[in-house]
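Encode chain A's predicted structure.
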Amino acid sequence: MSFRPCSWPTAALLAAAALLVLGCGKGLFDHASVVTDAAVPDPDVTPDTGIVPTDDAARTPDDVARPPDDAPKPPDDSPKPSDDSPPPPDEVRPPPPVDSSTQIIDEVTKTIGTNGGQIAIGGAVFTIGQGTFTAPTQVTIRELTGIDHSGAYGPIYEITVPAAKLFSKEGVLTLQAPNVGDNQTNLAIAILDPGLSLSRQQWVPVYDSKLSDDETTLTGSVTGFGNTNVLLLGAVIRCPTSSPCPSHQLCNASACQQCPTLSYCP
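Encoded structure for chain A:
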């Protein structure tokens, strides 16, 4: 059996077919390589998402929770005390203001220790007994010409201490008794009581006020410092049993004085 060499056209066709097969195979391998590279991301390369980070994104959680320094503060809705709110229990309320025509005649301030002592001013002497104060305490007494409240005769005496509830014992005030004529025997030391809720506060005679036998001196205990640190004291006429109170006065709180209203008594 013998073989005949291929003719030139036949050889050319075989060579072309071989080249075509080799070229298609290379294309298939290249395509597979591209798909494999795209499916496996490089861990060292950050993907581009197209989103630009903002300032808030760069903050830490603490920075985001903390408001900026210039942020507006929330309104303060807490209740505010009004002018007519009741005062705290330990608040000290001063006595009513003195009249515009009132003048200070004299003023004396003295420190009284635990052994007690006396303060003299004008026609008055204030005696503080031993053991009244637990520590040295400053006491001020002012002698006034009068206050805007009829009913007291002669000078008014204002006694001031640093705080309420300092007196463990009652002090004693001695006054020169004013001359009130027919009602002289009815004179008594009284306190302008800061506790009476009236349009005009009332003079209240002290419980043990006494007039000397010669009717020139009044003596009585000073009470009322348990609720205030300022007291006003003066001489008044106790409501007489045999004659009416002087003109423009009525008997209130056991003393002849101006009516507890904004108008004078008839």
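Residues 8-39 form the longest helix (32 residues).
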